User: Which sequence fits this backbone?
């Protein structure tokens, strides 16, 4: 009974086989129901996350947050759902209608597909792929395509500008994100997420903190969360790529953003925080699910905290930060991690000795980075120019 999900799955399979159904058909039915249940749980999680994020925003910004609809504002997401379900879905007159309506579906599908390979426990996982990390990078590209489809098909210059920014931002930040993903793959010697979790007798956030930090930053840019929300900057381009969307079509973009935010927390927990592992998790997988959700919420909270604290940066600052800082830094981290990993493996160093050596390497790279930045920054500062005082306009004398 410590693994009720597997028990229910086995019972359901036996029941269908007892009805005389073919084994292949039973497998298809079981996988289809599993996908429906996983998608439903993900969507219901978004409803709770909307309330949680608004409450967090209120507390961090010294205000109450939702507090009118229901006790503690708990019914506010339900009110929002009723509103968005009943609003009319408008289509611009000169829009490419097929592409326009396909974009939000592809966008939300790209986020839901990430959850296929995320292990909730050692036995509860949609598909235990041995190339799960590569799969995550591949399905994440669907989101970029969907944003481009939405901006181009809307026949709106602001939406198209938001789509262009998506190309500049999401594609650019994928480079350091993929390189950061290679660090846990290197440490675990596998691309399978369950293998990466099982390899974390010591969390990889201790072994490779710089890779974890870079993955967190680049994932925030992929989601488009502040301070990287340039693709939907309201003060500049109305709402970005989804300017022309309304009703449930806009709601799908909105839900996908929250779900992607939660998925990033899940990936951070899986790749760097030990995933479902914890005391008693292997004996009682239900505990593993609890550990997984706690760690996922930690990542979710950190991203929300940053989003509600930092202001939006300029597009040139964002791209310079990526290409001139994050990408060179993660390349250095990846190369030196690979070298030290081989040296320690050759000398038979493992356990905490291995972890402390890797931690020392990350500390040295971080310290060297700070020194280099301190040396470079003064040469880039603009010289202060002293302007003469502006003359004060004098009123004309009366005759």
Assistant:
């Amino acid at each position: 009974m410590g693994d009720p999900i597997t028990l229910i799955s086995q019972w359901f399979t036996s029941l269908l086989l007892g009805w005389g159904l073919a084994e292949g058909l039973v497998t298809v039915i079981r996988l289809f129901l599993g996908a429906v249940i996983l998608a439903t749980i993900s969507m219901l999680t978004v409803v709770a996350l909307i309330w949680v994020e608004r409450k967090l925003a209120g507390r961090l910004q010294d205000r109450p947050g939702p507090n009118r609809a229901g006790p503690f504002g708990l019914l506010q997401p339900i009110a929002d759902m009723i509103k968005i379900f009943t609003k009319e879905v408008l289509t611009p007159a000169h829009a490419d209608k097929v592409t326009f309506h396909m974009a939000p579906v592809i966008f939300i599908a790209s986020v839901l597909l990430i959850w296929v390979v995320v292990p909730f426990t050692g036995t509860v996982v949609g598909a235990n792929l041995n190339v799960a990390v590569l799969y995550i990078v591949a399905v994440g590209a669907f989101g970029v395509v969907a944003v481009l489809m939405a901006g181009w098909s809307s026949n709106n210059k602001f939406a198209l500008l938001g789509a262009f920014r998506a190309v500049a931002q999401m594609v650019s930040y994928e480079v350091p994100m993929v390189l950061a993903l290679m660090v846990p793959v290197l440490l675990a010697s596998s691309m399978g997420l369950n293998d990466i979790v099982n390899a974390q007798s010591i969390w990889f956030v201790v072994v490779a903190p710089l890779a974890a930090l870079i993955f967190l930053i680049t994932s925030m840019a992929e989601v488009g969360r502040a301070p990287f929300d340039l693709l939907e900057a309201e003060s500049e381009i109305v709402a970005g790529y989804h300017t022309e969307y309304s009703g449930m079509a806009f709601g799908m973009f909105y839900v996908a953003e929250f779900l992607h935010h939660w998925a990033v927390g899940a990936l951070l927990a899986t790749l760097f925080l030990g995933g479902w592992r914890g005391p008693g998790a292997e004996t009682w997988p239900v505990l593993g699910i609890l550990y997984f959700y706690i760690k996922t919420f930690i990542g979710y909270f950190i991203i929300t905290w940053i989003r509600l604290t930092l202001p939006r940066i300029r597009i040139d600052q964002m791209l310079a930060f990526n290409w001139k800082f994050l990408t060179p830094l993660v390349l250095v981290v990846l190369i030196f991690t690979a070298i030290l990993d081989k040296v320690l493996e050759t000398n038979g160093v493992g356990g905490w000795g291995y972890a402390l050596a890797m931690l020392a390497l990350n500390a040295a790279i971080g310290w060297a980075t700070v020194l280099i930045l301190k040396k470079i920054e003064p040469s880039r500062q603009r010289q202060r120019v002293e302007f003469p005082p502006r003359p004060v306009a004098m009123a004309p004398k009366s005759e």
Summary: Residues 92-375 form one domain. Residues 37 and 380 are 54 Å apart (CA to CA). The two ends are 101 Å apart (CA to CA).
